[in-house]
Design goal:
By secondary structure, this protein is an all-alpha fold. About 70% of the residues lie in helices and about 0% in strands. It has helices at about 1-20, 50-55, 70-85, 90-115, 120-135, 140-165, 175-210, 220-240. The protein binds zinc ion.
């Protein structure tokens, strides 16, 4: 059931990834080719299988359908199932991190493909995180979530402002600040410093391997998301076994 739910939600995330950056309606039209507008028939709208069956091309005009469609429909169910094995269906944490991951997947791909973190995807995270902090059985109590989010927001704003003053250009985007503030409501002060450090380490590694040009900008969002997903699954291991 989680595999079906994940693949179907993944299919919806693909619609968000395609349409939110273009400010297009996410309801109308139903699944259609972004090149020729061909309405994809129901029998070709089955997650994963359809993409493989039509070999990633529109069956009418032959336009390539971006690979994110297949990747998102595969990783979403995998992450949901991994959450199930970690928390089970009775823990509130299963639902908390399922909701968080459902925000993070579109954020990852929109930032990676369009260099944007849309407010409509990042700011609601702050409220969702705070709501989960109020529920019984949660791992981060409300005082921790509120204080950490307020601190992270001010800290990153100050960092971005001073970088702008010194270097006369933008270093940290506003989207990154909202995203990290949202994420901090989910993890509190024990999680967010390490998520930030991991995100920076991943970004620096990526920069050294793939970019290497001083003036070429690159996005930070996908690294924040990757670090967060790793933290969701490995935080106990990292804190207990690795950091003692
Ligand atoms: Zn087409």
């Amino acid at each position: 059931m989680l595999a079906v739910l994940g693949a179907s939600l993944g299919s919806f995330f693909n619609v968000l990834i395609d349409r939110l950056p273009r400010k297009a309606s996410i309801i109308k039209p139903p699944s259609s080719c972004s090149d020729c507008g061909y309405r994809i028939p129901v029998w070709l709208n089955i997650p994963i299988f359809s993409y493989i069956f039509i070999k990633g091309r529109c069956s009418k005009c032959g336009a390539t359908i971006h690979w994110h469609h297949l990747v998102v429909e595969i990783i979403t169910p995998l992450l949901f199932i991994a959450l199930f094995y970690k928390y089970g269906l009775t823990s509130i944490l299963f639902y908390k991190y399922l909701v968080l991951i459902s925000f993070l997947i579109p954020i990852f791909f929109i930032d990676a493909l369009k260099q944007l973190i849309l407010h409509v995807t990042s700011i609601p995270l702050i409220f969702v995180g705070l709501i989960f902090a109020l529920l019984p059985g949660t791992d981060v109590p409300i005082a921790n979530a509120l204080a950490t989010a307020a601190f992270i927001f001010c800290f990153l704003l100050l960092l971005a402002w001073s970088f702008g003053k010194i270097r006369k250009k933008d270093g940290l985007g506003g989207g990154d600040i909202w995203l990290l503030t949202g994420i901090s409501t989910f993890f509190g002060y024990t999680g967010i410093p390490l998520i930030l450090i991991f995100a920076c380490v991943f970004a620096i590694a990526y920069y050294i391997v793939f970019i290497r040009q001083k003036e070429r900008p690159f996005v930070f969002g996908p690294f924040i998301v990757s670090a967060t997903v790793i933290w969701i699954f490995l935080s106990e291991f990292i804190l207990n076994k690795w950091l003692g």
